[in-house]
Amino acid sequence: MKLHGVVNASKDSLADFSITLDIDSAVTRAKELINHGCVGIDLGGAGSTQYAERIGTEEEWGRLDGKIQAIADLEIELSVDTWNPEIMFRALQAGANFMNAADGLQNPAMVEIASETGVPVILPFLSGDDPKSLQFISGDPVNHILDWFETSINRLDRSGVKRDQLILDPGTGFGPDDWPWEQRYFYQEQIYSNLEKLRVFELPIYIALPWKMEEGRKNLLEILLNVGFDYGRTHIPQKVLAIKKELELDL
């Protein structure tokens, strides 16, 4: 299990403790996350929730420029979370070495970047064509996700993206606007309890881990830790590792 710590260069993040609006604070947070067990950093400059401000390319880049280069100097795994191909291209030029493709590689320009650079790509499942406008899923979400990944992997293979570049994210960090927590919890519990089914693709699994622990979120984290995953995107690595240790002591 590899943990990638979250550094937010957007003031819109609901996890306000992860927000860093200048280079020094971004590097400080990155170092703290590494000291608490992370081997990588996921940096984002534009929020994807319904509460986030919609910004243009230059504003998003202005939030990231300088922070990418400074965190890259720490010589760690570094992804930039964006659905904007121009931002992704600039980020990789500046020192990022992973793509967190928030658009699910729907944009041909994003696919071209993945194909040409050959870097690892976090590929999130999307219940729709746009992470900013997602749809509810009826029926078994796991089968729906498996079908989506099979179709996407085949499409990307034909477009020149190597299969072994891909890291699969079931997309539980995304969701339709104003989704009641009870429904979201049930949806995530179904996926996490059956996460091993994603192993059929023989590719690493990436999960956006909860950063709140109330209302059953700790239970969801415990399910994930028991089932196992390859990469965890986390705001609170020390808490994740502490709960993992508790579970190991109980087994």
Characterise this structure.
The model has no long low-confidence stretch (mean pLDDT 91). The protein has 9 helices and 8 strands. The chain has 251 residues and is of the alpha/beta class. It has one domain (2-250): TIM Barrel (Alpha-Beta Barrel), CATH 3.20.20.20. An 8-stranded parallel beta sheet has the order 6-5-4-3-2-1-8-7.
Task: Give a concise summary.
41% of the residues lie in helices and 15% in strands.
**Between the first and last Cα atoms, what is the distance in angstroms?**
18 Å
Q: How much helicity do the residues have?
A: 40-55%
User: Radius of gyration, rounded?
Assistant: 17 Å
CATH class: Alpha Beta
Sheet-strand content, in percent, reads: 5-15%
- Which structural category do the helix and sheet elements fall into? alpha/beta
Query: Count of DSSP E strands?
Result: 8
Strand order of the biggest β-sheet: 6-5-4-3-2-1-8-7
| Integer average pLDDT | 91
Q: What is the CATH topology descriptor? A: TIM Barrel
**From N to C, what is the helix and strand string?**
EHEHHEHEHEHEHEHEH
Overall domain count: 1
Mass-distribution shape? globular
Stretches with pLDDT under 50, minimum 5 residues: none
